[in-house]
Design goal:
It is a single chain. The protein has 102 residues and is of the alpha/beta class. It has one domain (23-101). Helix content is 27%, strand content 14%. It has 2 helices and 5 strands. Strands 1-2-4 form a 3-stranded parallel β-sheet. The chain has a two-stranded parallel ribbon with strand order 3-5.
Length: 102
């Protein structure tokens, strides 16, 4: 493989690994919970009902001002996972009235 192809292959591997991994790390297991470190991690959790039965840990304080909040879990599929706040906090979150979601 020539040098240019090798560099392209390495770049694509890092790019796709970053996309597939999701969150800020972890695998969603009890021993290796998904890491919620930035706002986009929390947004991914809100949107990823396939993950609502997995393990999560908050690794930083998050300021959610201006973030459109939706429940993690709903009538059809509840959040059954584990969320460890790890002594961190969410702040400035505005949660719409529950009646808007059913």
């Amino acid at each position: 493989m020539c040098r240019k192809q090798f560099i392209t292959a390495i770049f694509l591997a890092f790019f796709f690994f970053g996309i597939c991994q999701g969150y800020s790390g972890g695998s969603g297991t009890e021993a290796d919970p998904y890491q919620i470190s930035i706002i986009s991690d929390w947004q991914q959790l809100m949107d990823s009902n396939d993950d609502w039965g997995k393990h999560f840990i908050l690794t930083a304080d998050l300021d959610l001002q201006g973030v459109a909040m939706v429940p993690v879990g709903n009538y059809e599929q509840h959040f059954t996972g584990v969320f460890d706040g790890n002594s961190h906090t969410f702040s400035k979150a505005v949660i719409p009235h529950f009646s808007q979601f059913h």
